[in-house]
């Protein structure tokens, strides 16, 4: 009798799940795009007072590390440093994308993202270099890094292919490296339409990095399991990217591929500027004719001054850890209405408005609300946004839910900077296989006033 009842319940549940699964499949099918001009992006906010400031409540020592980190964050690198090019630090190249952290993370202040004028254009010939500007680098386009999806033998790649070399520079005599070949050209501003083996990323803003770092794994997992039925109905799943060593949740980068701010800093220093450091101690390019410095080029010294005692990557991490998140704009009727639309369409099921930090040694980071508008999970974004690159447990179509705090200041949108328009960015979330298809369907069914209110809310963040 008990077995019969269990079988009956299972059959009933199966009958219930079948139409729900069918409903999810039906709703997940993308609709035709909304009519052009159906909404208007109001554009970026003017930089508010306090943007780029440290977290409130830091101790004097923590504030000193923030300032030391900021100083290193903005300094330019050259091949041999101040001895050859005054005001620079050594270590640039042999291959690189730009010569400073703040060059990439500039909008609207140090720690942000791509500025309106792309510094990579002038970088091509800086200090006498003979680089050509790649087709995907435009004066009015975003800062980009390039990756090859596959190697010539067809095996998967995904690593950064730095665009510039130190050949011809006054501080790199004798170096004769050649730039990489990025294949057929496409649109230089959108980055679309070129060699399909080349994909792009733009800088992620690092505001509020310490608060994100201090969110416990369990808080991320609890949020992932919350509202499970609503997520199932909308076809939303998502999962954490995790460290292959200890299984803990990674959270920084477009695919949440980096565990900590220190790892994020060390990898970026090596990949973007070519500066070897304690985490990445070997040059990616080991041509002896282009080796000018002992390794690692960034290192800790045995002194007590916080400005010189610690390696650059330690100070970069401290700057990001203590950097405050942007404050949202004051509410207006349109912003309030847009916030409600953001919730009713289902955007909040991935862009979680608030998580919370755990206990931290830094009081300013301990048990604090984090209004990041992200669940820090990676989600399948479908074929339209797929870049073909896997990192950790994030697959070739998966990306971290981008934190939306500071969105009002961002000029270029999506992982590759293909658009400046929020409406276009929302539409790009829908394509075959995307977890956002149902949400975009709901967005397309909104009246024009609600769509405009949604844009007002997003640009207020």
Automatic annotation (TrEMBL):
Signal sequence residues: 1-34
Keyword terms, alphabetized: Heme, Iron, Metal-binding, Signal
Residue ranges occupied by any Cytochrome c domain in the UniProt entry: 333-461
Domain of life according to the entry: Bacteria
Protein name: Cytochrome c domain-containing protein
Originating organism: Anaeromyxobacter oryzae
């Amino acid at each position: 009798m008990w077995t019969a009842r269990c079988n009956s319940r299972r059959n009933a549940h199966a009958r219930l799940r079948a139409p729900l699964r069918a409903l999810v499949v039906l709703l997940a099918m993308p609709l035709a795009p909304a009519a052009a001009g159906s909404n208007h992006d109001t554009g970026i906010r003017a930089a508010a007072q306090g943007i780029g400031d440290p977290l409130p409540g830091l101790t004097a020592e923590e504030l000193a590390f923030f300032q030391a980190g900021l100083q290193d964050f903005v300094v330019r690198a050259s091949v041999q440093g101040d001895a050859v090019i005054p005001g620079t630090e050594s270590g640039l190249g042999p291959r690189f994308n730009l010569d400073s952290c703040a060059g990439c993370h500039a909008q609207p202040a140090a720690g942000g993202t791509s500025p309106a004028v792309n510094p990579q254009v002038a970088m091509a010939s800086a200090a006498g270099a003979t680089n050509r500007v790649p087709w995907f680098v435009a004066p009015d386009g975003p800062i980009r890094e390039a990756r090859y999806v596959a190697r010539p033998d067809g095996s998967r790649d995904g690593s950064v292919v730095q665009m510039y070399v130190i050949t011809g520079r006054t501080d790199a005599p004798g170096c004769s490296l050649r730039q990489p070949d990025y294949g057929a050209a496409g649109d230089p501003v959108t980055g679309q339409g070129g060699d399909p083996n080349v994909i792009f990323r733009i800088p992620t803003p690092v505001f509020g990095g310490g608060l994100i770092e201090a969110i416990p794994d369990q808080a991320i997992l609890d949020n992932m399991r919350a509202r499970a039925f609503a997520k199932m109905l909308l076809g939303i799943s998502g999962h954490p990217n995790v460290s292959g060593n200890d299984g803990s949740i990674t959270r920084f980068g477009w695919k949440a591929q980096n565990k900590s701010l220190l790892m994020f800093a060390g990898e970026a220093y090596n990949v973007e500027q070519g500066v070897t450091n304690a985490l990445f101690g070997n040059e990616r390019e080991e041509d002896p004719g282009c080796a000018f410095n002992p390794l690692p080029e960034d290192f800790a010294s045995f002194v007590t001054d916080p400005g010189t005692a610690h390696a650059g990557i330690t100070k970069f991490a401290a700057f990001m850890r203590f950097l405050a998140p942007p404050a949202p704009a004051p509410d207006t009727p349109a912003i309030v209405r847009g916030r409600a639309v953001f919730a009713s369409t289902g955007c909040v099921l991935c862009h979680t408005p608030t998580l919370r930090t755990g206990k931290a040694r830094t009081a300013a980071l301990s048990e604090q609300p984090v209004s990041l508008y992200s669940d820090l999970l990676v989600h399948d974004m479908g074929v339209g946004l797929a870049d073909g690159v896997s990192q950790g447990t994030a697959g070739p179509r998966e990306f971290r839910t981008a934190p939306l705090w500071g969105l009002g200041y961002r000029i270029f949108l999506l992982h590759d900077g293909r658009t400046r328009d929020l409406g276009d960015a929302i539409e790009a979330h829908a394509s075959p296989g995307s977890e956002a298809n149902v949400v975009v369907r709901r967005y397309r069914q909104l009246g024009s006033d609600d769509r405009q209110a949604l844009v007002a809310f997003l640009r207020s963040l």
